[in-house]
Amino acid sequence: MHSHYYELTMTLKEADFVEFIADFVANIAGDGLEIGRDHIIVRSENDLAPIQEAVVTLVGSLGGAIDIEYKIEEKENQDWIASYQNSIEPIEAGRFYIYPSWYEAKEGKINIKIDPALAFGSGHHATTFSCLDVIGTRVQRGQRVLDVGCGSGILGLAATKLGAKVELCDTDPISVDSCEQNFALNSAEYEELWEGSANQAKGEYDVVIANIIADVLKFIVHDLTRATQKDGILILSGILDKKETQVTEVYKGLELLERKQKDEWITLVYKKLN
Description:
This protein is of the alpha/beta class.
């Protein structure tokens, strides 16, 4: 064990975005994550500058809508990794059981192994939880599924384990690498995985999943609806309740089949009519 570790503290002017940024960091960082009301702390024995750079790039891609202050410090190591792992609990979401490798799989559930499972036990997992619940009831064997903004790949993994043919994409290269690693960890195979978004998708899909944020969902509405085949399903998540009407307004050409809310986060399930 190293005698020192690094700590990256990100303080957000708007607390509404803490869960979104924390979810992004959880998908790309192989280290401990602590979430507060208006801040996120990442701890690692490795240099955290690449994590900060990835967040800066993400914020820039959103037009600078999120104001974040960054601070990296070097601290004395007190075996925080073991303490963090001991605090993690697996999660059951619908038909799925999500667990880190130091736990056993669960009989009777569809098991998905995700390491280092940074999102476990923290409040920012609400959108993923709801999406997994929907996937368990909506995705069927043999369907063609697209996961847009795949992050760790957990949603695509869930669809794959149900027998779907899954393609995934993310604009962040670190997320693409993380997704590839998690598919390997689960001995699962995807059809395609690329760095980019839905505008690069080829053809149409039975199910399109986009767990991003409201502003991005509005921006790529045409790409997502184009990728969804007639009578296909579009699952949208990462929507704060106060921004729900902004999203439903731009997707009003689709039929709303289902609305799920967990904490302040909304997941919407649409059917494309034509």
